[in-house]
User: Which sequence fits this backbone?
């Protein structure tokens, strides 16, 4: 397996016009095959029915030539992560997911193994949120308290999955996603925020970042106008800039 960090951060598992994970099939299959990975450890902590969620992912990915197993089937979650070469962290509620990752002592373990190039990280929605600097820019309701909003930090900025353009100002008078992200950017601890549109994914390969999938992304930075990036754009500069 490569000695560089490798990750795929998906906006979601579902995208209009595609079956579950279909838009990301090529990217997921490629990153696993090139590293000779046959088994994928699924982490369903963002939802409560672990068995059903794992079965749903297994039904999709196993036919691609890989074997999915749920982390909850192992008596020691940390040992399961130590013993695997690739994980897929599913979506659901980000606060619940991060709390369970901390409870099972997985945050630092995953961070270190990915940084060392010993673990491929695939995340979707909430699984993408927890791969970033913090979960401050999740869309989810805070239904439970994790010990910290600090996350795994595979990338040194924040992501807003399921990003959608501002609603029609003629008919929608409530808050928009842009407003909420800009409220976050007003905070002293704010990092840049990459809004991943549905069907978008971020490919992390060592110190390089590229937008893949079937949709682009939007970058928000303090003191700057938002910038749109299409599929295929190299956004490696986000690894190397100051946080603000």
Assistant:
């Amino acid at each position: 397996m490569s000695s560089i960090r490798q990750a795929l951060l998906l906006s979601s598992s579902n995208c209009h016009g595609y079956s579950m994970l279909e838009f990301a099939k090529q990217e997921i299959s490629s990153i696993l095959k090139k590293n000779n990975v046959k088994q994928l450890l699924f982490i369903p902590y963002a939802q409560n029915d672990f068995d059903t969620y794992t079965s749903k992912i297994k039904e999709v990915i196993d036919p691609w030539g890989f074997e999915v197993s749920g982390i909850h089937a192992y008596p020691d979650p940390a040992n399961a992560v130590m013993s695997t070469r690739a994980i897929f962290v599913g979506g659901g509620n980000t606060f619940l997911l991060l709390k369970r990752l901390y409870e099972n002592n997985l945050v630092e373990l995953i961070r270190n193994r990915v940084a060392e190039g010993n673990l491929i990280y695939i995340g979707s929605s909430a699984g993408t949120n927890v791969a970033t600097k913090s979960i401050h820019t999740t869309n989810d309701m805070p239904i439970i308290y994790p010990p910290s909003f600090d996350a795994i930090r595979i990338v040194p900025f924040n992501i807003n999955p399921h990003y959608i353009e501002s609603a029609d100002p003629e008919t929608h008078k409530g808050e928009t996603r842009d407003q909420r992200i800009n409220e976050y950017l007003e905070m002293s601890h704010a990092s840049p925020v990459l809004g991943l549109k549905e069907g978008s994914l971020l490919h992390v390969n060592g110190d390089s970042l590229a937008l893949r999938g079937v949709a682009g992304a939007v970058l928000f930075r303090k003191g700057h106008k938002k910038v749109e990036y299409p599929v295929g754009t190299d956004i490696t500069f986000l690894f190397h800039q100051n946080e603000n």
